[in-house]
Each structure stands twice: as C-alpha cells, then as structure tokens.
Amino acid sequence: MFARAVSVVTLMVMTCGMTSCEMLQNKGFESGMTNWNCWGFVCKLLDAADSKVGSHALVASNRTQGWQGPQQVITTEPGKTYKAQSWIKIINDLPGVLGQKMELEVSFTFPDDSHDYINVAMRPLVTSGDGWFLLAGDFQAPLKAAKQTTFYYQGAAPGVSFAIDEASVTEVVDDPNWRNVTDDVIERLRKSDINVQVTTGAGVDTSKVRVQVVQTKKSFPFGCEVNSWKYVDPNQQKFRDFIHTHFNWAVQGNALKWRQFDWNQPSEALGTPLYARALNTINGLIAAGLKLRGHNMVWSVQDFIPDSVKAQSGDALRKTVKDHIDYVMDATFGKIENWDVNNENLHGQWFQEQLQDRDYDLELFRMMHAADPNPVLFLNDYNVAAQGAATSAYRAQGERFKNANVSMGGMGVQYHFHSEQDPNPTQIKAHLDDLATVGVPLWITEFDIHVKDQAKRADYYEKALRAVYGHPAVEGIMFWSWGGDTADSDNALAYGDNMDMTQAGRRVFNELLEDEWMTDESRDLATSGSSFSLRGFHGDYQVKVYVDGVEKSNLEKTFTLGKDAANVRINVH
Length: 573
Prior knowledge:
The protein is globular. The protein has 573 residues and is of the alpha/beta class. An 8-stranded parallel β-barrel has the order 14-15-16-17-18-19-20-21, surrounded by 6 helices. It starts with 14 loop residues before the first strand and ends with a strand.
C-alpha cells in the first residue's frame, strides 16, 4: 500500500546526461531532505561517517506500517522504460525475524484518481549485518498518462529503521542495434570452423564432385516442459513424437514436485512417496535420447509445501527433508543432469523461517550434492529476466551461494512474459548481463509467451528467443507451457492431439531451431576447390559425397563439432 499524502514538492528539473535523464532530485541527500517526503514517520540525515556516498544519507525510523518509506514525486512518460536503484541499509533487526524484505516501488495516479502500483525491485531476508546493499530494478510506465508519479521505499516491517543513499531513476534507451549484437554472439559462440580437405584418385573428375556437410543433432540444449500424465498416455503417441523430434532436453513440469505426493494420493497415503508416473516418463525420455532436468526438489513458497510437512519443525523437519532428498536422488540416480534445488527461494523462505535458520537454503544444496555429486545443482527464480524486479536480488543470492562453495553449478532464469508483453531485448540483455557477473552458467528454465494474435505471438517468440540464444552466458533454453488445445491458445507452439504447429511454432521450429540455427551446406569442388572451410553450429554431423549426382555412401563420415574446429579429410576414389 502507498500512503496517500500531499506534500510540497520542489519544481522538477530533470538532470540529463548524454544518454539518459535523472528523474530524482537531491538523490544523494547532499541538500538535506529537499524534494523528499517522510509522511507519518521520522526521517533524519546521517553524516558522512554513516553514509554510503558523499556527505549525507537519510534514515527512516518510527515506522508503523510496512509501506512507509521516503518518497519523491518524479516525472515519467507513458510507455517509456526506467531503471531505479538505491543503496539501502537495515539499521535494526527484530527478535525472531530472519530478515526484512526491502522494495522500491512506483505509484501512478491518473486523472480519474485511479492508481497503478509497480514493484520495481525487491530483496528478501536482509539484516543489519548485511550493511549497505544496492537494490535495483526497472519498470515501464503505463501507456496512459498519469497526473502524478511517485517513487518510494517500502517492505520492512513496522519498527524497523533503514537508511538510504544515492537513489536514482533514469530513462532506459533501447538499443536499436540489439539484433546485430545477438547475431554476432550466435556466430562467434554457437558455431565453430569446419575444415574439409578432399583428395581424389586417378580418373575422378573433380568438377563432378559435391560434398554436403549436414548437421543431424544439436548440442546446445533446447528443451521443453513435459506433462507426465499426457506422456504416459498410450493414446498420445503424437505428443511423444513431437517432443522426441523437436527437443533434445526435457523437464517434467509437476511430477517431481514434493507437493504432488499429497495432491495425487489417497488421503491415507499422504506423505508417502509415489513416483511411478514420473519414473516412467523419465525412462521414456531417456530412451528417446533426451537429457533431463529435475524440477524441483523443494519449493519454499508456503502454498507448495506438502500438508504432511507443514506441521513439522526442528530436527523432525530436518530429517523429513533429508529423507525426501535421499529418496528422490536414489530413485532418479544417473538419470537427471540438472536439478532445481529450492524453487523460487527469493519469493518464499518457508523452510528457513520454520527452522529459524537463514542458511538452511545453503544446507539443501549440501545435502543434494552429498546424495549424488553428479547432477548440476541450480537456483531457479522468476522476475529476473523477462522482468527485472528481482534481478539484483538474484545476483546477490547467486554470489552468496557461489562464495559458500555449496556446489551451485548454475542459475535457472525463469522467462515468463506477462500476457501480451512485448519482449524488450535491451532490458533482457541488461538483466542477463547482471546475472552473468556471478560467473556460473545461466539456463532459461521456463520460457513462455502468452499472446492471442498468432502473428504477434510468432514475432514475440522470435524476439525473445534471439535475445537469450544470442547471450554469451546462456547455456540452455527450456520451453514451458508450450502446448495448447487450439491454435488460438495464447501460449501455443503446437496444439491438439495431432500436435499441429501454430504460426509461432513454425517460426520457432521450422525457421529458427531447425533451419537458421542448423547447418546444411554443400560445396561443388569445381568452384570451392579441394579444400574449403565453413562455420557450423555445434552438434553431430554427417559428411556426404556425391559424384556426378550419385551419393557414395561408402565415403560418408561423421563427426561432432564443439568449441574447437573440426578437420575432415575425404579421399574420393
């Protein structure tokens, strides 16, 4: 909630640089509290010894509501994108509370006195021991004009004081050359050189020799979420065939989640592991040649905690969690390549709070690794790429896990776009750049677009897909919620029992994944000479030789192209 307050506001004069304009006035409190309002609580200046930047900072205290925090009226333009950030420090902790959630917020008041509120940035479980931290995010102003826009702080519980310094709100200018940047990354990092040398025996007319280099399998992970109920249905062979044909990785959307035990068992069996359907799906996918992600071991959002677990605490809860991890890791041993360990931990901390152990999230990774050291262990969260409210918090979480040496091998980036949201490649790149500083692989773990218009859906899928495939830190992409009942299902790449492709599906599969981003090139020796090179996407290849239009199957060669160049020698005789 935002305080409805009237305050005297100094005339706004935006401070503009070469590429952006600063919307905040007195952003570092060097002019005292000018332009800032602290309605209903107490604000005072801190001197240089306690500030983060410059001579002053501001501390908010005597707060009686979670939404109370310093605020300033700013100027925004409809539809434009802005970045907001601020240094923040918690001054005091509350007994029995693991930490506070701090948020940057923007409110819009429209001419009809209606309101819109945007959570720009959030970070959970911060304490006084964390010292100064930088909270950052971005937002798009509504398309309709507002008569007043207010930037403010909120989130900490009543009774918690916090300091702020060097706040900023600046307009983000979209990069008109984003496509050139992503195409360059794809060319440099997703492909390598293939060097072909052909020798010919006596009597072979080189002018009649043609060499075809054709990719048969990708190495870059393009995977999908799998509905296990549908996958094991004997009547859904076309569903299985579609997955086996178009993807090389898969993840079960729900079947491995702990909460599923309670939802899909008789009441007298609550809490008893039940994995037959999940394991049958796993075995079928592996038999078809796909690699698998595990989603997820635990989910710390309260609504997704099994009922049989919610009543537990202390050592009993710790034992239950360990037993669950050991059971699942044993049941799936050798079958799962990557695991999402503690799903959406930025947005729920049930286990940590129930155990009053802020570091229990780290312990979950240690237990997973001890149970099976082979799978790569991932964090996984949302609002970190398609939107940016949790990006800076996710980076901080990733740094914490990496520094703790708990075998975190990657960060899962959920890529859910809001209904009708047009992907912004400039912002997506900025979010991924921020997360990439952690120094571990990024996987796009849950990618879906929801747009009614089929042509627009195809365009949005392409734009969003190029933005992530063309980012150097991304090492896998998993499509989520990709099937629909009809072609008009707003998420559908394929639909119905026949798995017919929508316009978006044809764009994604026929034009991008299986054409533009696959390699199939031929060279006539008459024009290319006996030695030639080409760039190919990483994966498995066949090299076929044709003489006077007839394939010489005995000369076929196969190889796998990785980051290093592949050298192929062929003797045509």
